[in-house]
Amino acid sequence: MVPVKVYGLPMNGSVARVLACLEEVDAEYEVVVVDLHTGEHKRLPHLARNKFDSVMLPIVFQGLVVPVYMGGTSGLKVIEENLEKLKEIMEVYEERLSKLKYLAGNFLSLADISHFPMVHLLQETPYGSVLDAYPHVKAWMAAVMDRPAVKKVMVLMKTFG
After folding, report:
1. Does residue 47 belong to any structural domain of this protein?
2. How far apart are CA 51 and CA 29, in angstroms?
3. What's the pTM?
4. CA angle 72, 76, 82 (to 5 degrees)
5. Are 95 and 38 part of one and the same domain?
6. For the chain, what is the domain count?
7. How many other C-beta atoms lie within 10 A of the C-beta of residue 16?
8. pLDDT tens, 63-110?
9. Full residue range of the structural domain in which residue 77 is found
10. Which helix (H) or strand (E) covers residue 49, if one does?
């Protein structure tokens, strides 16, 4: 099996959680250090590794946080720009998920679970229907969100939201 590449610093809480999960299942992995001091984490190619959250965050922020929690008006230009970027990313996911049940193969992994928070929040905005055009993505995320552990966390997300 090809080792999983984990980008970041092991002292980072998120990276440490990923590494602990990989250790739990005795998976091979390689830590690829991202130099925070030089700002590598804010530049390409590192940003290109996780386009999903970087595109979803402005949509969720402008479509949910600003109008609901801050009482402001959504930045429609920001939303529209990021929806177009999201559609490009969804095309890649759709292609992959047309061949596999989950992102990393035919087994659930942290790669799948890590996507549900943003998708869940996106669905709370008027823009959640953007995923309707991608049947494999929609089915994949429905399967992830149907898991008991994810359902519990979604309840917690609403409790603290």
Report:
1. no
2. 22
3. 0.73
4. 120
5. no
6. 2
7. 14
8. 988 998 889 999 999 999 999 999 999 999 999 999 999 998 888 888
9. 52-159
10. helix 46-49
